[in-house]
């Protein structure tokens, strides 16, 4: 339970808490929720610690589809959103779409010409390992 001794290796705290080393040894601490200070703690799932002003760091929601990713990272849980070239959160893009990094492409392949900042999502050379293993039946 929160405040109880825990094992740093096992991370054996109740749901909603994590094991952290304190002045009296490792103890369970509750994750911080939206709007709570994260200067001395870790934010809960789907939140990030906005430490634009470090002394006033606070937990805020991760960016959702269509929201700006200029000041908040995109939500990578569930739909695994990425920060698109438009500086908004969205799903990775299809082949042929503009990209600035490989994670912005479904294929994870962004070809950027030398000296340019933007490129194009390209088809993957090989299927992802897990897909290849499922299709071919190899371990």
Q: How does the SSE layout of this entry go?
A:
Elements: E1 17-22, E2 25-30, E3 47-50, E4 58-61, E5 82-83, E6 89-90, E7 98-99, E8 110-111, E9 119-121, H1 129-136
Antiparallel strand pairs: 1-2, 3-4, 5-6, 7-9, 8-9
List keywords for this structure.
two-stranded antiparallel ribbon, 6% helix, 1 helix, three-stranded antiparallel beta sheet, mainly beta, 139 residues, 9 strands
Descriptive account of the structure:
The protein has 139 residues and is mostly beta strands. The chain is built from 1 helix and 9 strands. The chain has one helix at 129-136, and strands at residues 17-22, 25-30, 47-50, 58-61, 82-83, 89-90, 98-99, 110-111, 119-121. The strands form 4 sheets. Strands 7-9-8 form a 3-stranded antiparallel β-sheet, with no helix packed on it. The chain has a two-stranded antiparallel ribbon with strand order 1-2. β8 and β9 form a beta hairpin. It starts with 16 loop residues before the first strand and ends with a helix.
Roughly how many Å apart are the termini? 40 Å
Order of helices and strands: EEEEEEEEEH
Strand residue percentage: 15-25%
**Cα radius of gyration in angstroms:** 20 Å
In short:
This protein has 139 residues and is mainly beta. The protein is built from one helix and nine strands. The strands form four sheets. The chain has a three-stranded antiparallel sheet, with no helix packed on it.
